[in-house]
Amino acid sequence: MIENLKNLSEKLAFLGFDGWITQVFIVVFLTVLADFIGRVLLRYIAGKLQLSKTLLDDSLFFAARAPLLLIIWSLGLTFAADIVLAETGNPLFKIAEPIRNVSVIAAIAWFLIRLIKEAEKNFIQRIESRDEDEPGLDRTTSEAIGKLLRLTIGITAAIVILQTLGFSVSGVLAFGGIGGIAIGFAARDLLANFFGALMIYLDRPFAVNDWIRSPDRNIEGTVEYIGWRHTRIRTFDKRPLYVPNSIFTNIVVENPSRMLNRRIYETVGVRYDDVGVIEAIISDVKAMLIAHDDINDKLTMIVNFVSFAPSSLDFMVYTFTHTTNWVEFHQIKQDVMLKIAKIIEEHEAEMAYPTSTVHLASANLPTGLTDELQAPPSQHAGANT
Question: N or C: which end of the chain has fewer CB within 10 A?
Fold first, then answer.
């Protein structure tokens, strides 16, 4: 190609153009032309790929678009720099070859990183659109795998670039091993957070969008982001809470989002005067729970008289709902409690409230005081009229 450019420049030299300048102009012009043609073809291909239902070809195209243009410009400009170096011998243009090699390696690494990111995005969309009971990886694991792959490609590309530039990779690795000891002592908290994140990705005690809380720490809210250093939790008053990942290796974490059912556990008291209908009330309440569409009658259900309280006869209601949604659960619980109140009313009974009864022995009181206490309130001394 260089010989062809020389022949072309020699022909143009008759027209008064300097040979090597003409060659540089032609190379830059061809580079610009290739960039223009490449952009037109990429737009055409993008339009065709939108008609396809396959996500793999879309990911490959969008990942390769920007790196391809980078390669076109890096090859074109460094080739023009080679021409200038051959004609002028300027040592400044000796960096053209290393720049070309580094650009190609960087473009390949960029393509792979973009491809992994596009694949991760498409995979997460499939996870969010599938049924909850369908087996497979969750979003947190997918993001963790994507981060590890991108980190691996970045480190590998950096090592290859160093080797291309003439650095001794073995020396760099040896220096990294010695320096790693010092860095390990200085950044032990950072490493602890990294391994804490790794344990979260492997054990998966919680995932993004899970509601978690810890009885050991004042931590409760919805998980928004799991990084290599910290986890971001949105509390119920909408404040962000940033928790270092190393904390999760030393505390108990409760994940209410993964509960199978929600429990209704209440104690209801009726008056002692209604002892004759307490058994019928309990029987009707249990029948109501069994017939309720939102109550899971296959799990433990207890409706029993449990205690003689100071001012009430108490029976326990213990059952589970089908839903785990917090808002729906409270609507169901409200419906159950109102139906229990209606059942008690249908039996002409009443719910008990704290009362006290005072019994006085009349034999030890004066006759006049006894008659006054037994008289109607309107006849008491000092009564208001």
Answer: C
Rounded Cα distance between 200 and 192, Å, is 12
Residue 62 has pLDDT above 90, yes or no: no
Q: Which of 197, 86, 217 is nearest to 148 (CA)?
A: 197
Query: What pLDDT is attached to residue 367?
Result: 56
Closest C-alpha among 359, 271, 358 to residue 310: 271
Q: What is the pTM (predicted TM-score) of this model?
A: 0.54
User: Would you tell me how many other CB atoms lie within 10 Å of the CB of residue 231?
Assistant: 24
Burial bucket for residue 174 (CB in 10 Å: 0-12, 13-18, 19+)? exposed
Q: Examine the pLDDT at 266 and tell me if it is beyond 60.
A: yes
Residue 173: the pLDDT is: 61
All structural domains of the chain with their residue ranges: 2-128+137-168, 189-256, 259-346
Alpha-carbon 14 to chain mean position = 69
State pLDDT tens for residues 95-108.
Answer: 778 888 888 888 88
Quote the CA–CA distance of 194 and 226 in Å, as a whole number. Answer: 11
259-346 CATH pick, 1.10.340.30, 2.60.40.10, 3.50.50.60, 3.30.70.100: 3.30.70.100
Query: Alpha-carbon distance 184 to 190, whole Å?
Result: 9
Instruction: Say what the pLDDT of residue 276 is.
Output: 92
Tokens of 11: 């022909």
